[in-house]
Amino acid sequence: MDFVRTPEARFVGLPDYPFAPNYVDVGHGLRMHYLDEGPPDGEAILLLHGQPTWSYLYRHVIPALVAPGLRVIAPDLIGFGRSDKPTRRSAYTVHSHVKWLEDLVSRLGLTGITLVAQDWGGPIGLGVLARQPERFARVVATNTVLHTADASLAGQLTWSCHTAADGSMVIEPALLDYQRMTQELAQFCPSLFVQGATVSELPENVQRGYDAPFPDESYCAGARQLPLLMGLTPGSECARINRRTLSALAAFRGPFLTAFSDGDPSTRGWESVLRHIAPGAAGMDHCTIACAGHFVQEDQGVALGGVISRFVATHPT
């Protein structure tokens, strides 16, 4: 598989990102980057990012989890961050992302995992949980979706995506506009999307941190392709995988917490859907994180870290 690897010089001196890189081989010879912070024998917290970010997104969450003695694993999805980036768009499918992450989890021997899933971290991370549920102890879902386009979702989501009674599709135009923007931008700049979906103002050096993995267009195949893989029709690969994942969640008994933000219409409603499906969500102290947009880690990283650490402490395995 042809791929490119972002030069290490692009990651030097990033603000608030002092973490040492770690790598593991996944798939057919691809190198996947991950952070591994905290005591090796601490409970494993798996932090998953989405589009178009990387582990840099969690730079303020990680210290809040390491402080109480948790072990934090924060990978970069293939095509993002310090991970290898296949140059052909056809290499990127939802199944391949799930399999690449599953390889990382298996090769690191992670068990008793608390999964923290935001954005595409939901379909991908929960997709791994569906395949290896025995490795997972808890889930924290924050600003994520599992699009299936099923008719049952009608009226439940702020950004609609469901089949109508006559078989037609009802899709929030903003979802399609987002897809269009990711394809039409002449220069792909993740910082534009992060800034557009946060309530705080990103300093220029932080914007450079988000853009660091993509020196030029040859590195952007995965970042361009992922938005096109959303399960916006019932027959799409993503929708089919998400249905299997939702079925697996219905059988997953571990504690399940939602910690969505108050400023993200793109995912609003999914917290209720997930709480209804996951048995482990019953009786949990679900919360809404205030003053945060879609990228809650950027706006309220310390607060999110506190929610996660308290959840782990109050629901021991």
Describe how the helices and strands are arranged:
Layout: E1 3-4, E2 22-26, E3 30-37, E4 44-48, H1 62-66, E5 71-75, E6 85-86, H2 94-107, E7 113-119, H3 121-131, E8 136-144, E9 161-163, E10 169-171, H4 173-184, H5 190-196, H6 204-211, H7 221-225, H8 237-251, E11 256-261, H9 270-277, E12 287-289, H10 296-314
Parallel strand pairs: 4-5, 4-7, 7-8, 8-11, 11-12
Antiparallel strand pairs: 1-6, 2-3, 3-5, 9-10
Helix pairs in contact: 2-3, 3-8, 5-6
Give the SSE order as H and E letters.
EEEEHEEHEHEEEHHHHHEHEH
Task: Please tell me the total number of domains.
Answer: 1
Number of strands: 12
Shape, per Cα inertia axes: globular
Question: Would you tell me the overall average pLDDT?
Answer: 98
